[in-house]
Amino acid sequence: MIRLLAGLSAVSTIGFAAGSIIGPVPLYLPLASLVLTAVLFLAARIPTVLRFLVGLFAFAFLILGAVTALNEAGWLPEGIQAFLPPANAAIVASILALLHYLIYFVPVLRRIVDLVNPYFEAEDRTELNLGFLARWPMRERTVALGLLGFVVVINVLLVYLNVLFNFWQNRFYTAIQDKAAAAFWTEMGVFGSLATFWVLRGVLDSYINGYAVLRWRNWLSQRYVNDWLSDKVHYRLSLAGNKTDNPDQRIAEDVRDFTLSSYDNYTGIFSQLLSIYAFVSILWGISAEFPYQLGGFDLSKIPGYLVWMLLAWAVLFTYLSHLIGRPLVPINFKVQKLEADFRYNLVRVRENDEQIALLHGEEVEKKGLLARFAAVYGMRFALLVRQIKLGSLTFAYGQFNLVLPFFLLAPAYFANESMKSGTLMQTADAFGNIIPAFSFFVTSYATLAAYKATIDRLTGFDTAIAKANAARDDGVHAQPQTGQTAIDGRDVDVTLPNGAVLLDKADFSLPKGRRTLVTGPSGSGKTTLFRAIAGIWPYGRGTIALPQTDDVMLLPQQPYFPLGSLRAALAYPLGEEAFEEKQYRDVLEQVGLDDLADRLDADDKWDNALSGGEKQRIALARAIMRRPAWLLLDEATSALDEKSEADLYGLLRQALPDTTIVSIGHRSSLAGLHDRRLAVVPDEKAAHVEERPLAEFGER
């Protein structure tokens, strides 16, 4: 499509040039068309969202340029002259196309575009649902670009209505001053029509804008959740420490703020640019009608002097706002981080309330929580002080702006008896529309600073996810191999995230069908070795060969319980429908929890409702239902007494006759439940793995 527009623009350039040479077509049309043609050819290299906007404004230029050329040639009827756009409207469209092309070459804006663009390239099949209006199946990118284009058009209409209201004020107040009753009531009718369109536009804008933001947030949240939980990225991020703090906040809050603020900021800046174009031309013309003597010099001799005065006024306060508000970006970033840390620790206390109560740790937790909140309070106070400083400037600026147009225009108004109050009110209204446009960065600095902090956090999250994905091939490689019947490790180095070596040149073999017990001092690397076998530990070197068609299941000491029913906890990570009702009840009876059979569908905080031993029984029940080829038990029965532990090992042998069991344990009673033993033996610098007699461990 962009190539087609480029071709049409090239043809238009030739047509406009010919019209300019032989007729009344303005010279700026072929020049603008030539620049636009180059931009359209180059735009094929920029992201989709910018390419779409460049194409949209290029299309507007072609339409407006054609209308201007036809009108200058006298080919359009007189009856529609009042409804035609200004002659220079085509230039504005070409400038907007050029600005959107150049956006991608501004580093800070490029970061925003790189965050925004994936949504506008999404190929997901979806449905555009506008409620009572309509529903259409289409791709997500089509919906996204269509809604964006609609929002742009709605904002153009907003500025157009503002211009109509501006001219209406001139006529209305002039009618009041002249006591022209007929004109007054006519203008009241015009106002009713304009107000009706204003309300309809506002309602439609709120609906479409809100719907567009909601769809974007839905897609972006799904993307981040998928990226975070794909291929163990979440686990590698957690091992990286504080480099990516609180992913939950980034997905829940930062995505919400980013999508909403992106639309608000773009439409705000876009509509203000259009307002500048629309009302600068009005003020420019009025400047010549307001003779203003300043020290004997007539300012009206300066073309558009009212515009230049406003611009200087806005630039001064924009600069002051930047000086005062610049620290808001890092402060907002720190506030968001500290708030998330405080909330995370509150959740930790809630989830571990029993252990805290048993240890009488309330005072320690209280001190820790209050210390974290003190950090939040301090940073929030620093934010408040900085916002007050910036707010003092913006509040003062806003109050001055209320009387600024009358202050500037009053001398000329009182000196010229023929000047109507309608002209004064129109000029004041034009000021009222231009001042917010010129002052957008003054009044929105705090909002933009918070937006910049959100962008930094999401960009950091993207970078961390990319690094975690790049690191998935690092570390020990647990690879299924054809013809492999055992789990074999050769020259395996297992390290910590800081590079410290836990296991050095470990050679080991776990034969299929033999129950192996892995022993060694606490902290020697047994659990980390299991993680490497399971394929989730990203630090180290070497290869662990796995049987190609076999699945490996690892049960940790502390089982995980998802939110929901006991049935869901038993089936995890499969769905509840994966097993029949009889299987659920039978397995609960097998592991000694038949009293819970009637609570299979009860939603409870099972992680807190069950004892440590009961939770480990549930984990073993999962393994029996899953029937893995290899079952790694990382002290998975440590909360049970020795008799219950032996009974459950017997149950595993009976229920899973084809499953090879490998256990980590410290109890000597485990020796009688296994066939062989691997010992993790610490050395001066690291530990190594060697096979030792099982009887030695049992005789301790």
Describe the structure.
This protein is α/β, with parallel strands linked by helices. The chain has three domains: 1-105; 106-469, ABC transporter transmembrane region fold (Up-down Bundle), CATH 1.20.1560.10; 477-698, Rossmann fold (3-Layer(aba) Sandwich). 62% of the residues lie in helices and 12% in strands. The protein has a six-stranded mixed β-sheet with strand order 10-13-14-8-15-16, sandwiched between helices. Strands 5-9-6-7 form a four-stranded mixed β-sheet, with helices on one face. A hairpin with a 2-residue loop joins strand 3 (293-294) and strand 4.
SSE blueprint:
Elements (H helix, E strand, L loop, with lengths): L1 H21 L5 H15 L5 H25 L16 H14 L4 H10 L8 E5 L5 E5 H39 L2 H49 L3 H7 L7 H41 L5 E2 L2 E2 L6 H21 L2 H24 L1 H6 L3 H54 L5 H18 L1 H4 L1 H26 L6 E5 L5 E9 L5 E10 L5 E4 L6 H9 L5 E8 L4 E4 L8 E2 H6 L9 H10 L12 E2 L1 H4 L2 H15 L3 E5 L7 H14 L4 E5 L11 E7 L4 E6 L1 H5 L2
Parallel strand pairs: 5-9, 8-14, 8-15, 10-13, 13-14
Antiparallel strand pairs: 1-2, 3-4, 6-7, 6-9, 11-12, 15-16
Helix pairs in contact: 1-2, 1-3, 2-3, 2-4, 3-4, 6-7, 6-9, 6-14, 7-9, 8-16, 9-14, 9-16, 10-13, 10-14, 11-13, 11-16, 13-14, 19-21
